[in-house]
Amino acid sequence: MTETSQPSLKVGIVPVTAFQQNCSLVWCTETMKGALVDPGGDLDRLKLALEQTGVTLEKILITHGHMDHCGMAGVLAGQMGVPIEGPHEGDRFWIEKLDDPNSRYGLEGQSFEPDRWLVDGDTVTVGNLTFDVIHCPGHTPGHVVFHHARSKVAIVGDVLFKGSIGRTDFERGNHADLIHAITHKLWPLGDDVAFVPGHGETSTFGYERRTNPFVADARFG
Ligand SMILES: [Zn+2]
Ligand SMILES: [Zn+2]
Question: Could you tell me the residue range of the domain that residue 198 belongs to?
């Protein structure tokens, strides 16, 4: 697990599943309460991360309904006795597919009903921390991003990657929606916001605005 530190937010990244999906353990250093964002699988590794950090799991947060991000979220919630918040209800159809072995690319998975569906403008708490919820459809219709403004950290799932953007060739994907979400909802948060993508290395919005071939400012004149 790699860690980055901010005033009272800590973020640890644990890649899970055959897709090397970046499950994030985010926690509040004042209360040592935390959330796992997108626990798609490899639950033993996630429990080990909790043990090693001494974090008490308070809840599970979900960015979107793809199996590598939430396939095992329902199972983990049941085992740990914690609620699931997110994604937006637009991804209900993806979460229902988790029970279909033909839709799981060989991963383990189980459908679940989140304790709370999220909408744009909601906030979610982790210990004493408050994250803003930003609805960013395009990769999936119900994709949300979690932003901790005070620390300038965002967990963006499969909306944006270092040097790339999310696929939009899945059912109900929409390329124009995705570009609009990135340029109109993420960029205004600030060039100095560091983000954890669903796969691969972390980056900042400013770096992507300069260099990302899909969404760099130069591309839009
Ligand atoms: Zn995805
Ligand atoms: Zn993914």
Answer: 2-220
Cis amide bond preceding 137, omega within 30: no
Phi, psi of 149 (to 5 degrees): -60, -45
Global pTM reads: 0.95
Strand order in the sheet with 84-85: 2-5, 9-16, 21-28, 33-37, 56-61, 84-85
Return per-residue pLDDT of the chain as tens, 221 residues: 666 655 699 999 999 999 999 999 999 999 999 999 999 999 999 999 999 999 999 999 999 999 999 999 999 999 999 999 999 999 999 999 999 888 777 788 999 999 999 999 999 999 999 999 999 999 999 999 999 999 999 999 999 999 999 999 999 999 999 999 999 999 999 999 999 999 999 999 999 999 999 999 988 76
Instruction: Please tell me the distance between residue 187's alpha carbon and the centre of ligand 1 in angstroms.
Output: 20
Residues 6+ apart with CB under 8 A from 18: 68, 105, 106, 107
5 CA to middle of ligand 1, Å? Answer: 26
> Which CATH number is 75's domain given?
3.60.15.10
Number of domains, the chain: 1
**Tokens standing for 214?**
């899909």
Distance of CA 160 from the midpoint of ligand 1 (Å): 11
